[in-house]
Design a protein that fits this description.
Largest sheet: 4 strands, antiparallel
Strand content: 15-25%
Order of helices and strands: HHEEEEEEHEEHHHHHH
Distance between the termini: 45 Å
Helix content: 40-55%
Structural class: alpha+beta
Radius of gyration: 17 Å
């Protein structure tokens, strides 16, 4: 049975009755990942949702032989490869554990069953809207803001990530070289 962290996470969006929690918790199973493990590999079809209870994940793609960080997920959060999960097409991204992680998994089949529960369905819609907002924000920043500005904002809002994410992954997320990021860090 999932820890209270998942219930608390859901309750940040919507109130959860004991009956709803009992149903939801039946579908989730604990999984441990070691640093460097892939939760999802590009080219495979995503058939899981994960609630990241502890740890840090990186979504990345391969481009011209280089891995490029798309974004990072810190616990607690619910995540998946939305496009692959919904369309049943091979994933275009990889999901990698940057630290040892504790996650609670639900299969796509069990998620479909759970979506018949009104509370879970409402929660899922709210979370998808939030992820869409975050995605739009990342795209706007990529198009309109400098790497230095984005680094300063990350430092202001999530300073612990600066320590937890390796420099090369941060640099690829900002679209610059590690050397350029080192120069920005020295100036800040």
């Amino acid at each position: 049975m999932p820890t209270k962290a998942l219930r608390h996470f859901i309750e940040n969006y919507i109130s959860v009755s004991d009956a709803d929690w009992k149903e939801i918790s039946l579908y989730f199973h604990e999984k441990k990942y070691e640093k460097g493990d892939l939760l999802l590999k590009e080219g495979s079809i995503c058939n899981r949702l994960w609630f990241l209870e502890k740890g840090l994940l990186r979504f990345f793609i391969w481009k011209d032989g280089e891995d490029v960080s798309k974004f990072f997920t810190i616990s607690p959060y619910l995540l998946t490869s939305q496009r692959s999960l919904v369309t049943r097409l091979p994933a275009k991204e990889n999901i990698e554990a940057l630290e040892d992680c504790t996650a609670w998994e639900i299969t796509s089949e069990d998620n479909e069953k759970l979506l018949k529960n009104e509370l879970w369905s409402t929660f899922a819609r709210m979370l998808i809207q939030e992820v869409q907002y975050f995605t739009e924000e990342i795209l706007e920043d990529l198009q309109n803001e400098t790497a230095a500005y984005r680094y300063k904002r990350l430092l202001a809002h999530n300073p612990e990530l600066i320590q937890r994410i390796p420099l090369k992954y941060l640099a690829s997320f900002f679209g610059i070289t590690p050397q350029s990021l080192s120069r920005i860090r020295r100036k800040v």
